[in-house]
């Protein structure tokens, strides 16, 4: 990517894990709204479950997640009582015992749980939902807090995938982000996962971190691939939003890589993963082994995107559980109370803890599919997509015209109603998607940079 184009288009735009995006959710969607939406779901549909474990043992300064720090297990135990109760409330609101095809534990840090509580949660889900044969059960894992007993319990409970946060192996970078995690710590946990039969291991890496150099990032990638042999790799760009996350103020702006270095880190990191290590690049920031289900889904144009990023999960209903849990339903999106005590109070009162959301229109559904296909496939036939929604693609002439500057710079090709993102334009696919976002205000500063 030419430096002038990096500066020109490195705009603050949404990550498009939903459409409409979260800043446009509003408090007019309540727990009663959500209850009605749940009861109206077709009971024959399969769904996915996301459980947010809203605690960590310490704060990583780069973290953009909703989490609370605790050194005691008491608050975690109380939170899990509320989470178990919420599972019951949601299951009661559904039209019947529905089938789950995907379960994902995120955070925060799910590994802060005692192994008995993790197993109890899985058992409760299995009692209230039918778990589909071959369903994926995935857990985000912090190697610093995962012990052997926990990994063994995960495997015994049927976990099929563990996603491990590595971020960067350079001690100076780890110190700067308050996440001291030597290689040996991660290697030990990967060994336990393989010993106890968790079949799929992912790793998460981050570029754009404080004091991170290009050579240091490439060394982290190379060492991680050779040592951990992950099936999937996520290479995320650090989103520095100290106006939203106060702990990020502990990372001085002057320690961050400049825009040109950040772009080099991304591009050279992608090259190392694909050309040297043989991974298939998925969209903007994911990579998968060629025979991995995600790479196969990409090839067959069946890749999807949700709040966990790129996914093979095609369920139209995603139930978000826990404080700040986000759900996606055919009728719209819902978000739980983010403050843990407010969430617990709602659940204790027998109420769903919805704090905001948005009902979606037919136009939202159409634009959501356009944005998802661009994010996943990097190309789209607007006539085909619009036809599936019973409308004409002619309505998007203004959006197509707005892509003219990107086309002039070789980042996208527009041929009638067909759009194809070029190799150079892949890094700016979110800027292409933004052309179809009717909610986005020019110059909005609530989002992270495009890369």
Please give a structural write-up.
The protein has 2 domains: 21-359, Alpha-Beta Horseshoe (pyruvate-formate lyase- activating enzyme), CATH 3.80.30.20; 362-434, Arc Repressor Mutant, subunit A. The protein is built from 16 helices and 19 strands. The chain has helices spanning 3-9, 31-39, 74-93, 115-128, 148-156, 171-176, 183-195, 214-228, 259-276, 293-299, 340-348, 362-377, 382-388, 397-402, 404-408, 429-434; strands at 46-53, 55-56, 68-69, 99-107, 130-141, 161-167, 200-207, 232-237, 280-282, 286-288, 304-306, 309-311, 317-321, 326-329, 332-336, 354-359, 379-381, 412-415, 418-421. A 9-stranded mixed beta sheet has the order 9-10-8-7-6-5-4-1-13, with helices on both faces.
Strand residues, percent:
15-25%
N→C terminal distance: 12 Å
The overall pLDDT, averaged over residues, is 94
> Rg to the nearest angstrom?
21 Å
CATH fold descriptor of the largest domain: pyruvate-formate lyase- activating enzyme
**Helix vs. strand class:** alpha/beta
* Helical content class: 25-40%
CATH class of the largest domain: Alpha Beta
Question: Biggest β-sheet, characterized?
Answer: 9 strands, mixed
Q: Considering the protein shown, what is the CATH homologous superfamily of the largest domain?
A: tm_1862 like domain
The total number of structural domains is: 2
The order of strands across the largest sheet is 9-10-8-7-6-5-4-1-13
Label the CATH architecture of the largest domain: Alpha-Beta Horseshoe
Shape: globular
Q: List unreliable stretches of 5+ residues.
A: 442-447
Tally of separate helices = 16
For the secondary structure, the number of strands is 19
């Amino acid at each position: 990517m030419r430096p002038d184009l990096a500066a020109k288009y490195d705009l603050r735009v949404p990550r498009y894990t939903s459409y409409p995006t979260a800043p446009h959710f509003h408090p007019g969607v309540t727990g009663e709204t959500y209850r009605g939406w749940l009861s109206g779901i077709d009971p024959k549909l399969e769904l996915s479950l996301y459980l947010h474990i809203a605690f960590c043992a310490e704060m990583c300064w780069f973290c953009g997640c909703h989490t609370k720090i605790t050194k005691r297990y008491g608050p975690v135990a109380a939170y899990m009582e509320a989470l178990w109760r919420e599972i019951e409330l949601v299951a009661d609101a559904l039209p019947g015992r529905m089938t789950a095809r995907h379960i994902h534990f995120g955070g925060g840090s799910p590994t802060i749980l005692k192994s008995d509580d993790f197993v109890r949660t899985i058992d409760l889900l299995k009692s209230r939902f039918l778990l589909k044969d071959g369903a994926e059960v995935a857990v985000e894992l912090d190697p610093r807090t995962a012990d052997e007993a926990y990994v063994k319990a995960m495997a015994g409970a049927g976990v099929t995938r563990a996603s491990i946060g590595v971020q960067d192996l350079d001690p100076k970078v780890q110190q700067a982000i308050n996440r001291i995690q030597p290689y040996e710590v991660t290697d030990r946990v990967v060994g336990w996962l393989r010993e106890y039969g968790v079949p799929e291991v992912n790793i998460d890496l981050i570029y754009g971190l404080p004091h991170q150099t290009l050579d240091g990032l490439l060394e982290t990638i190379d060492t991680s691939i050779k040592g951990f042999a992950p099936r999937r790799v996520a290479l995320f760009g650090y989103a520095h939003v100290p106006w939203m996350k106060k702990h990020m103020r502990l990372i001085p702006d002057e320690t961050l890589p400049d825009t040109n270095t950040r772009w080099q880190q991304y591009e050279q990191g992608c090259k190392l993963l694909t050309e040297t290590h043989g991974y298939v690049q998925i969209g903007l920031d994911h990579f998968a082994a060629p025979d991995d289900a995600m790479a196969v889904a990409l090839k067959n144009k069946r890749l999807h995107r949700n709040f966990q990023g790129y996914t093979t999960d095609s369920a139209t209903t995603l139930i978000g559980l826990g404080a700040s849990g986000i759900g996606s339903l055919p009728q719209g999106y819902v978000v739980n109370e983010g403050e843990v005590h407010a969430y617990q109070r709602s659940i204790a009162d027998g109420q769903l803890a919805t704090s905001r959301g948005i009902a979606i229109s037919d136009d939202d559904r159409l634009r959501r599919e356009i944005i998802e296909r661009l994010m996943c496939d990097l190309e789209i036939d607007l006539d085909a997509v619009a036809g599936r929604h019973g409308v004409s693609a002619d309505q998007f002439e203004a959006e197509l015209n707005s892509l003219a500057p990107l086309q002039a710079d070789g980042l996208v090709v527009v041929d009638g109603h067909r759009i194809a993102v070029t190799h150079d334009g892949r890094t700016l696919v979110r800027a292409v998607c933004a052309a179809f976002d009717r909610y986005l205000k020019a110059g909005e500063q609530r989002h992270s940079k495009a890369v």
